[in-house]
Specification:
With 167 residues, this protein is mainly beta. It has helices at residues 13-20, 67-73, 86-93; strands spanning 25-26, 28-34, 37-43, 46-50, 55-58, 75-80, 105-107, 113-115, 120-132, 135-147, 155-157, 160-162. The strands form 3 sheets. The chain has a 7-stranded antiparallel sheet. Strands 1-11-12 form a 3-stranded antiparallel sheet, with no helix packed on it. The protein is globular.
Length: 167
């Protein structure tokens, strides 16, 4: 018997964003050095991928002008933001200008910018890239892990920043 091909219905972009916006995520900043200059971007599409080997993933937009600079470095640091770092996230999420102006950082173990106040950081080497439609699926091989504080993480939910509610 021949398989029957069924065309999936078109998905409205606004409905897609609205429904997927109901999934809360943490907020990270992916950083690297490009010719000695710190580069980075805010990213809430970050996830652990594999324990063995240790891999993580994130998904920059194909229109990102920062991701090619991080790719060229071949290594990066994932900074997990604390709930008091909303303004740093906004600053590093903007295109253009010097995103790192006034942002305090030190080199991580792999030399990438480690943001002051981050909850944790994950050093990685670029492992692979896969086509993800209007985004790129980036896979990083973890080379170092650090916890920096007991602060709560910054969350993103329904197009807004949020915090954990304690009971």
């Amino acid at each position: 018997m021949e398989p029957v091909l069924v065309q999936a219905p078109a998905i409205d972009a606004t409905a897609f964003k609205t429904v997927l916006g109901r999934f809360a995520s943490g907020v990270t900043v992916i950083t690297a050095l490009d010719g000695g200059e710190p580069v980075g971007f805010a990213c809430q599409s970050f996830a652990s991928l594999s324990i063995e080997p240790p891999l993580v993933s994130f998904f920059p937009a194909r229109t990102s002008s920062t991701w090619p600079r991080i790719r060229a470095a071949g290594k990066f640091c994932v900074n997990i933001l604390a709930d008091h770092q909303t303004e740093i996230c906004r600053q590093l999420g903007r295109p253009g200008a010097d995103k790192f102006s006034g942002v305090e950082w030190t080199p991580s173990a792999n030399g990438s910018p480690l943001l002051a106040g981050a909850v944790a950081s994950i050093d990685c080497e670029l492992h692979d890239e896969v086509d993800g439609g209007d985004h790129t699926i980036v896979i990083g091989r973890v080379t170092g892990l650090n916890e920096h504080s007991e602060a709560n993480p910054l969350l993103f939910y329904r197009a807004a920043f949020g915090r954990l509610a304690h009971q």
